[in-house]
Amino acid sequence: VIGVGLVGAGYWGPNLLRNFADAAECRVVAVADRSRAQLEPLGRRYPTVELLTDAKEVIEHPDVDAVVVATPVSTHYEIARSALEAGKHVLVEKPLAANADQGRRLLEEAERRGRVLMVDHTFIYTGAVRCIHDLVRRGELGELYYYDSVRINLGMFQSDVNVIWDLAAHDLAVLDHVVPARPVAVSATGSSHVAGNPEDIAYLTLHFDDSLIAHLHVNWLAPVKVRRTLIGGSRKMIVYDDLEPSEKVRVYDRGISARGSLRDLQIHYRAGDVWSPRLDVTEALAVVVAHFLACIAGRERPLSDGAAGLRVVRLLEAASRSLAERGRPVELGPG
Ligand SMILES: NC(=O)c1ccc[n+]([C@@H]2O[C@H](COP(=O)([O-])OP(=O)(O)OC[C@H]3O[C@@H](n4cnc5c(N)ncnc54)[C@H](O)[C@@H]3O)[C@@H](O)[C@H]2O)c1
């Protein structure tokens, strides 16, 4: 049985705890949070779990084989690095680290120690994104034209990161997973509406080598919650609405074909069937937890490994740099 220790029991940590506690292959040994108030309700629900106030005690605990990091982004690197150095496997919340340099060091440390380093890119483990991944990779959409996502709502302001690092991290992880091509440049604009706080609204454009283009809109100041992604291709198009209770993914057999020369151009519109594939409704975090444990046991290899985490962090970093320069495109360059 794999001994698991969790660091960070704020908003997201308890969801991880619940899923690890439900998994047969592991035992949650200890949870640490700086704030005793966060730990108190967990004590009643999980009486066998040790509650600690210092991350170090979880990391150094002899019964802990794997450390789960659910603290603010600015602390991921320190905690994850110490855990790897102590020979533990690590699952880090998204985004992997606060900058690419830290991300690279975590990858190197995991490699050196032969330990699993996985990032919780939760959305790629949802039934909806798994289905979209299969449709795109099977070529159902044809040539990819665009990826367009809107992830907006009111609130959950984070003080240590801007809205890009909080919300666009999800879309970049999905994009990285679903789209085979890698972006070559990113431009971002945005602004802050609370004095002294990071940007709360941002628009990102990702450029690729060909005509594929991606646009991400993230906002903490929207009156309504929207979680919608459009993926357009030459043969079919997908609308993914994560707030839809059942038909989250719709596939449209719609598009255009152009014939003739420039002077005599004829555009034909195709409006065929719309269908909604049946999706696996297993909670994404349960899939994340089972996959992480299978990776530790050597049966699987992490889908959202350190390298995927680093690719997302590089994009986040480039987007923040572009944002600071009012949208100047920032080239991504090789690894
Ligand atoms: N995958 C997802 O869908 C998802 C959703 C929400 C948050 N997250 C991620 O989870 C992480 C935590 O976010 P949150 O919203 O739960 O934040 P939060 O502020 O609600 O909770 C963080 C907790 O960590 C504790 N903490 C901070 N530093 C610590 C340290 N050094 N040692 C021990 N405890 C410490 C704090 O006391 C707090 O209780 C972030 O990385 C965030 O991006 C992921």
Provide the descriptors you would attach to this structure in a database record.
9-stranded mixed beta sheet, 30% strand, alpha/beta, 6-stranded parallel beta sheet, globular, 33% helix, binds nicotinamide-adenine-dinucleotide, 335 residues
Can you describe this structure?
By secondary structure, the protein is an alpha/beta fold. It has 9 helices and 15 strands. The protein has helices spanning 13-22, 36-45, 55-59, 73-85, 100-113, 127-137, 163-178, 284-296, 306-324; strands spanning 2-7, 26-32, 50-52, 66-69, 89-93, 117-120, 144-154, 185-191, 201-207, 213-219, 221-233, 237-241, 249-259, 266-275, 330-331. The strands form 2 sheets. A 9-stranded mixed beta sheet has the order 14-13-12-11-7-10-9-8-15. Strands 3-2-1-4-5-6 form a 6-stranded parallel beta sheet, with helices on both faces. The chain binds nicotinamide-adenine-dinucleotide. Residues 7-13, 32-35, 38, 55, 70-73, 75, 93-94, 120, 122 line the site of nicotinamide-adenine-dinucleotide (NAD).
